[in-house]
Write a structure and sequence with these properties.
Length: 246
């Protein structure tokens, strides 16, 4: 039986034409007020010629690359009002105005744990999403599969990847799960700088709607309270609660 779906991670990626990633340091983020001054680092920041990364103990991370800046947060069990990277992304674009922003991507990862009863059963993608055929039987082990679906929504396209995963709990026990990874990507058409910043901000604020859209899609179209056999074999292990590595 597949358990309840829960969104684990939120990542807001803002595309830029070109920027200098080296400006994104822990001191810069603190002294400009982009992040609160009392936030503590989880590990030393990373700074190279092409990327910078700052990770905080509360699960928030900020990554700057030449063509994008990424704000990530583990949001499992958080109320929407407690999620912080939307406000941080707003402060960033209002502080760093000299770059040419191009678009916004809202990325979500969520899991649905599976309670295995038959450990030798075929996996979720084969039993639920794909039609059986001879193509499954080739090589020395059963084939593995992942699925990408593309949905056309009113204002954007939703790319949804479905994979098997393993949850790893603090006591080192594991549980198979279905991993749903979603990307909502929106281009910005405004050219005037102030209008472009306003449009970027409006797209950032859509993350809550995107979370609800993903929950509705997964719960109503994929997890319909029926039992499906899932193989515990996996190609990816998630920490519980998961943290974004980028």
């Amino acid at each position: 039986m597949i358990g309840n779906f829960q969104v684990q991670e939120l990542l807001i990626a803002i595309a830029v034409r070109q920027q200098n990633p080296s400006i994104v340091t822990a001191d810069f983020l603190k002294y400009t007020g982009i992040v609160p001054s009392d936030w503590e680092l989880a590990r030393p920041p990373v700074l190279t010629n092409t990327a910078a990364q700052v990770v905080y103990q509360n699960g928030v991370s900020i990554v700057a690359e030449v063509n994008r800046v990424i704000f990530a947060e583990a949001i499992a069990n958080k109320e929407a009002s407690d999620v912080q990277i939307g406000a941080i992304a707003h402060k960033y674009i209002q502080t760093v105005k000299q770059v040419n922003y191009q678009g916004v991507g809202i990325n979500l990862r969520g899991i649905a744990p599976y309670e295995p009863k038959n450990l030798s059963a075929r996996n979720y993608t084969f039993s639920k999403l794909l039609q059986a055929g001879a193509w499954q039987d080739f090589g020395s082990a059963p084939a593995e599969a992942s699925v990408r679906l593309v949905y056309n929504l009113d204002e954007t396209r939703l790319y949804l990847d479905i994979n098997e995963a393993q949850l790893q709990y603090p006591d080192q026990t594991t549980k198979p799960a279905i991993l749903f990874s979603a990307n909502f990507n929106r281009a910005i058409t405004q050219e005037e700088p102030a209008a472009k910043l306003a449009a970027i901000g409006a797209e950032i604020d859509k993350w809550q709607t995107d979370v609800e859209t993903l929950k509705e899609l997964v719960n109503s179209k994929f997890l319909d309270n029926q039992s499906y056999s899932v193989n515990t074999a996996t190609t990816e292990t998630l920490l519980f609660p998961a943290a974004i590595a980028e």
